[in-house]
Write a structure and sequence with these properties.
264 residues, alpha+beta, 2 domains, nine-stranded mixed β-sheet, two-stranded antiparallel sheet, 13 strands
Length: 264
Amino acid sequence: MENTKHLTTAGEDCILASLGCLINSKLYYKLNDSDVQFTGGELIELKDSKKGYSVASFNSTIPTGEKDIKKLTEGEKNTIRTQMQEAGNNIFSLPIRQVFYLIRGKKQRNVKVCLTHGKFFETVPVSTLISESFGQALEERLNELGESLSPSLKRNLLDLFGEQQTFSRTRSVDDASVRLRFRIMTEVKAGANILNPNQYSQIGDNTLSFAVPCHSDAERNQQHNKMKIAFQEMDCEKLFSQMEVFSLQHHFNGKFLIFQANLS
């Protein structure tokens, strides 16, 4: 499987680091306590694929739309917490952070770059994804053995094993010479691959796109106004007028609002 790699050059890394903390291909955006509308604090993971228009696998993590900053910064020694504090962040002033994924795919001489909200990939709760996956493994094993469990016992077992933290810890067994830790690898289905032209033909070659959930007209207007204000504050109103704005129907999770600019 292809590993996640940095999308940036060394110089670009420095620019990204000035916006927040760049740690292991993840950008932890600085908080902006003085602005109610643009609070900052977003988490951005960089995903680079050199094998066409695919999304690189998520190693040891499951993509989500939001993350609890407390879970990311716990532990006696924590690099994320340390760098956020050194950057002057009041870490817990915004406990739930929005998560985005900066995805790049290349095909021949063409490229697509998408900054995509995590809800594009999180279409069922993480606990449901884990427990149902283990449920499939349990059912297969029971069938192989010709055994069965009562529905209530099966449900209780799956509920017990629905948290990723349960498996991320290293386990030590008496008299064993090795320790064991299960790692989760998440692969994106074709129906959630925003780069795939057969699934989402509106995402064109040589474009830069920004995708956010948009399940109502009110939400669409809010996102459109926020983007317009952001471009105005950067003195880039002309560039905003050149962008294509449209709704994209997700195969599993409703509509997303797309802001798209040509790179050619």
